Amino acid sequence: MSKSSKATACLVIEGAEVYAPAPLGTTSVVAGGGRTLWLGDDAAHQLASLEGVRRIDARGLRLIPGLIDQHIHFVGGGDANGPRGRVEELTARQLLSAGTTTAVGLLGVDNETRDLRLLLRKAHELRAGGVTAFIYTGGMPLPARHLLDSICADVSFIDQVIGAKSAVAERLHPNRDWNDLADLAGQVMRARAMSGKAAVLHCHVGSLDEALAPLVRLVDELDMPIEQIIPTHVNRTPDFSPVFEEAIAFALRGGTIDMTCCVSRLDGNLTGVDVPDAMRICLERGVPLAQITVSTDGNIPAAVRDADGKLTGYRTVPPSVLFRDLVRMVHELGLPLDQALQPMTTNVARVLGLDARKGQVAPGFDADYVLIDQNDLVHTVIAGGAVVFQQ
Q1: Which of these CATH numbers, 3.40.50.2000, 2.30.40.10, 3.30.70.120, 3.40.1280.10, describes 10-64+360-390?
Q2: Where in the chain is the domain with CATH 3.20.20.140?
Q3: Structure confidence by residue, pLDDT tens digits, 303-323
Q4: Domain boundaries for CATH 2.30.40.10 within the chain
Q5: What string of H, E and C letters represents the secondary structure of the chain?
Q6: Per-residue model confidence as pLDDT tens digits over 71-103
Q7: 287, 314, 346, 388: most buried, per Cβ within 10 A?
């Protein structure tokens, strides 16, 4: 059952095992005005009995921060299956029921029938439904498209625009003109200076041999801060593409790399390294956990292939694969929950410049929480202090 409500004057969650993401043990969380007010049992017990205070008995449940998905197609993406493959727009319920309370939307391969105005309009709709929604301006083609006069203006003057998207090493959008990529990089660097936002360059990395070389060139030749560039879809099989090896080198140099949940054999993709396996390899190679994020590439029509590589159909990637892979990193990789949470909470919040309000359960931060039951299922979701989903 999905429920929506306005944020109550005060919300008290009692008895949960709290991961902030650091493990805090069993305690109470008090929220008001859309923010976390404090953690602790004494005052919470007193408040819970007052009129107008909503109390949630969370004994036997774990409480984690709301998940952040920095790469998901609000208005659908891909369309690899012709007219029948067009994916519908996401709903707030689809995101919230999956434990995702903050998301960044972007355009995909299709920049002809979908545009930035539609994407921005969708972000407003999702915000009205309880999701903290942002978008990337630009898209896969270069020169980059924009809403206002320039990419710099979009990021600087539109609240929901948190950065820009582009693509490298992608056969559908080869973008071989260095000057176009350099101009885009200059614009997001100027936007960062003007706006105070992180103004990230979120870059789709395809499977062509140039891999991350154009992004490394931005750092080497333009002195672009490496933390401002986020290469995504990096967990591709090494025998198929050099991207994964180059991504590890990029992270060891101080960059942050973004793994994609649906690039795996589990999802019918034979050219990807599953997220738990990719995470294990990166950690074994010395990549700091803080330099890794995970996102879904959700709401695309992903190709499904059999063991011989033959196409058997398409499936729409749901937002829930982010929470799914959180659970898998705990059970299959053996990461403690507090560590498995970081690539989809604190690390992403830092990358996006949201780390003063998102990604943690702490006083002053947004009251975005997910309660998980003993079967590792989403039980209750709270966004901005409002209960927006209950199982």
Answers
A1: 2.30.40.10
A2: 67-352
A3: 788 878 788 888 899 999 999
A4: 10-64+360-390
A5: CCCCCCCCCEEEEEEEEEECCCEEEEEEEEEECCEEEEECHHHHHHHHCCCCEEEEECCCCEEEECEEEEEECCCCCCCCCHHHHCCCCCCHHHHHCCCEEEEEECCCCCCCCCCHHHHHHHHHHHHHCCCEEEEEEECCCCCCCCCCCCHHHHHHHCCCEEEEEEEECCCCCCCCCHHHHHHHHHHHHHHHHHHCCCCEEEEEECCCCCCCHHHHHHHHHHCCCHHHEEEECCCECCCCCCHHHHHHHHHHCCCCEEEECCCCHHHCCCCECCHHHHHHHHHHCCCCHHHEEEECCECCEEEEECCCCCEEEEEECCCCHHHHHHHHHHHCCCCCHHHHHHHHCHHHHHHHCCCCCCCCCCCCCECCEEEECCCCCEEEEEECCEEEEEC
A6: 999 999 876 677 777 899 999 999 999 999 999
A7: 388
Instruction: Scan for tokens 């990637």, then name that residue.
Output: 317
